[in-house]
User: Which sequence fits this backbone?
């Protein structure tokens, strides 16, 4: 039985880790961390867990945690995980960090986009970027996994095969992404009130969103050369879900069949990636509550561009589900353990 | 392995049976019935099932079905199940009917409220009303189970302990119920279009809704005498969930403690019924996707009335989940098999 | 030209007063009060007013305001208006208070339900309860009008004719009310975040909501004797709208025709009250953005109860629209000036 | 007083024309056309119009209509207007066609994208494309105005100044558009049911949507040469609103100031176009119910692309509001008559 601790268990992503681990038969949650709700019953913060979780919330003591559990999930704002983790801790416990702290290899890039000093740059090299379908073998050996961002997972997986195969020019890539509101977190802000979000859509963080360098770094590895993209996130009046619509120019003539073949090549054996039938557009409702990513493409011969589409549940494959998938890999468990649930509709 | 057939598998309730049975380790779905989509791939109708269900939809042939499966779920409009079932079929297969056909013991009442002739009144006596927490022992022995309506389940469970104990006067009972839109089904009607439902709330079927006699019959059994109630359903702009707010006058002086004790008496050991802590109001979001019913009461000393509140997911405990719970009972399986999922939030 | 000042202009109700007065040809807004946004451009707080309002927000200085304007709207939490207003101010300016401070005639009742000391009980007697259709003549002469609550307006108007005519027993009245989320205000609270409200419905303030004594007081006047009711508010995932479903027992035999005649008697000439055709249930979407209240009733002969239904826009007839209607009455303008807009749908 | 007739008055766009004309003091609606609801009271189809509209719906008889009214709005599917209109009719009445029939100058392009034969190509040359801010002078003289599509209006207005000034390369233009569900019309289709749209987002009509050639034609006029774009519409779970996020490469170095100056140049005097302050992103909620288009741009120096954003209400500026604006121009009325309403929020 794997003993798990969650730092930040009362945010939406942390709470989703709780939900998933409750259905994971080889894991037991030993520590519900939440600085905001110390000593409060977890189920009074998330009433859905009434009678399912009897624990109270505890402070973020990583030292103590490292002695009590086998794996720590940090579902906290950037900066926290990197400020707490060290070699001593890593020698005793595996860490899956859902923040951005260890996603970007170049600390200067991290600091430029996040505007904070990185407190543990010496640990960056060993951290593995936890995009399971791309870095599976490295994740299996990792002590410290950087769980990818929600937009990032969807964006990278949507474009990866075509970039990797050199079929599209990465520098023409434009990612127009749309997210449900749980991605904005559970903080009490006017901008996230029901009446402000409902019946509206907007772009935000235009040309400055922090997931941009993360997408660029991973696609640059795939391309074998630097890739600079445009990325625009949007807020959609729904709870869950990310939809990516991405555009890029082909590097040479290619038919839709050939493009689809690239997806089959890289994802053909992947349980959690579904390449939809031709002409079927991904929709977030078809993946809600599950760890699936639905993908499809459309070739526009008039413009010689390919439109790539991807949909996932931002709290599952975009956060907690991928974190559990990473945990399974890191502990040698079947990769889909605790993640077999079908999408919930409607 | 129980072989299951679903007649009406492409309605919302039928599709939820599919979702639940995919996660039920002792059941295998052998027949996806859908008169509207015969020969179409099931996963093209419900894209969430892409790569999870490879079957095509089949016609409603109960004769043939009865030879191929162990249990048939009928998730169809009233009148269909009763017109297909007979002694011969019941001798070979167990039936869980999600329609109203076998819920009401008096065919005259059925015909008065549903405006259709009952085609198989001779089978009504043996049908068991499948409200698991009330009729558990009878369900275990049933061949034909009448799965309760969504409003009904929530209304009865909310009021049952107080009626049974004689603490409230059933004839003062007023049930004001609110439902998510999936309760209206997947039929293409203007009234259920997004723009018609969104940003609105309305009552409908006022004083004439067909779930009324069903609630009355069951509460009359509990009271040991006829009970006549007011019942008003409302349509709420959300996908899932039923909330019941019910009002009744106390028959004698009683404190909230004593009232709560009645709930503990009948539901204390029930896994799927959660009596919330005092002052916590049930909310549909805390039960979504799960088989839970959350209940609570509030005593209003100013008016000597008790306000009973209940919340459930209309597609789970209000339909498919209860149907699976019934199946588990009828086949001697653990009652919660395939139903352990925690509620999904947000 | 009436010069108007708004204290609390950046709450949802205050902002709706702004919207309505911009379309009112005899009024000019001279003061956008907002303690939270002093010196900020109003249109940066409400971007819909970009280029329509050039003013900046100002502090709540009622003394100064009273010298500059003809009417003050106070759209603030309870306690503020009563702490600022005095005889001197009332001698110079008319006040329409959207808070609860002057709605209830007995300060002890106010203090019992609101848990605050009333700072100006000496002004309560002269304050007029601003339910235009009931107190029109008194409002015309008022210096200080207490604008009714949103739930209250809908509840009272739904039941008033039957109470007034003695056709229902007020003590059997149960009001089950449902509100859009703008009624909860623009404060940054977790409970009002999009993900918390969306896809859910709940009751709150059960048996303790502060609009209860206000409804009781007004219906007691109508009945000519004390009336005690049950009132339960609910939060609905939509921006605007209140729906009331109310239940009461008839005091004597009466047909639906006779009941409808009571509504015609009191509301037959009312522009803003629409008694719908028989069997048509009010829906909030049909009044959104307008000052209408849609009403209807249904007689349930089985239980001898009448079900009264009412729908209004909580920010218009439930707040700002009624405030403007009161202003029109107080200044001798046509009662519907600036309020002729048709409901917006969808 | 202008007498108006509306063919297709019971669709969402037609109903919005009704709402706007009720508030237009120089117009009177004489004919509520609706083939689906002939002889039914209009207010029974749109209950918001109860007591505001007493007329019944009538058939689509353009001959008769032309004798009774001064202007006809056709808010019907493509093909209908062109099949009814002729020189005789145009000699007696002005026509504002909200369908696509007369938007595209080349009938071959129309037929290629719409897959129907154009029944009146001889009238295409005289039809004026009714994008008021671009073609104002021509519209004033028009007998037949082709009211632009909703996506089109938003897309063209967002990009026009930069295309016109040659600051962006039209062939690099990618328009990612998001629409509320009223754009899908009031037809009873499963895809538009509440439960199908709610909690989801999807792209549709990828690389094949019919508004594409309309955008291309108008931007080609602006560019002075053929422009081919990528256009992707998305369905968003909200009633109203279109948001456009458009991307294009600069043709030469330019700062954000210079780009903004282009917008000021073309739109500086426009009442209904609001160029927001720098860094403020358009949101559909800030224009809802009004005739405004909110625009802004962001220069991304890393990619040398400019991101253009536009928001409008698809039923107002994207349909009925623009139609009324066109009517005002065609009849010599103030352009904003009946269109001064402030946006409704929340």
Assistant:
């Amino acid at each position: 039985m794997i003993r798990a601790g969650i730092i930040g268990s009362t945010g939406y992503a942390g709470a989703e880790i709780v939900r998933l681990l409750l259905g994971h038969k080889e894991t037991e949650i030993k520590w519900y961390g939440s600085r905001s709700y110390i000593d409060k019953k977890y189920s009074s913060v998330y009433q859905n867990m009434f009678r399912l979780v009897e624990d109270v919330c505890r402070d973020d003591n990583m030292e103590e945690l490292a002695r009590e559990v086998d794996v720590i999930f940090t579902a906290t704002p950037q900066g926290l995980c990197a400020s707490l983790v060290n070699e001593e801790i890593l020698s005793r416990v595996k860490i899956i960090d859902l923040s951005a702290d260890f996603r970007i290899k170049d600390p200067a890039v991290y600091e430029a986009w996040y505007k904070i000093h990185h407190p543990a740059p010496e640990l960056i090299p060993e951290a593995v970027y936890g995009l399971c379908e791309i870095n599976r073998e490295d994740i299996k050996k990792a002590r410290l996994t950087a769980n990818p961002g929600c937009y990032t997972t969807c964006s990278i997986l949507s474009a990866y095969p075509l970039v990797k195969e050199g079929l599209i020019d990465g520098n023409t890539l434009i990612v127009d992404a749309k997210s449900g509101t749980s991605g904005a977190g559970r903080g009490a802000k006017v901008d996230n009130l029901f009446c402000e979000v409902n019946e509206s859509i907007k772009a935000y963080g235009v040309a400055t969103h922090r997931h941009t360098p993360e997408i660029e770094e991973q696609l640059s590895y795939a391309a074998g050369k630097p890739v600079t993209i445009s990325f625009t996130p949007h807020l959609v009046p729904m709870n869950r879900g990310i939809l990516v619509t991405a555009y890029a120019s082909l590097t040479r003539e290619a038919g839709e069949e050939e493009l689809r073949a690239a997806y089959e090549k890289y994802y053909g054996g992947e349980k959690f990636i579904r390449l939809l039938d031709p002409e079927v557009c991904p929709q977030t409702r078809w993946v809600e509550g599950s760890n699936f990513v639905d993908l499809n493409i459309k070739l526009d011969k008039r413009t010689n561009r390919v439109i790539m589409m991807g949909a996932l549940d931002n709290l599952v494959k975009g956060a907690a589900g991928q974190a559990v998938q990473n945990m399974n890999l890191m502990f040698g468990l079947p990769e889909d353990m605790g993640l077999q649930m079908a999408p919930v509709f409607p």
The first helix of chain D runs from residue 12 to 22. Chain D touches chain C through 36 residues (CB under 8 Å). The two ends of chain D are 34 Å apart (CA to CA).
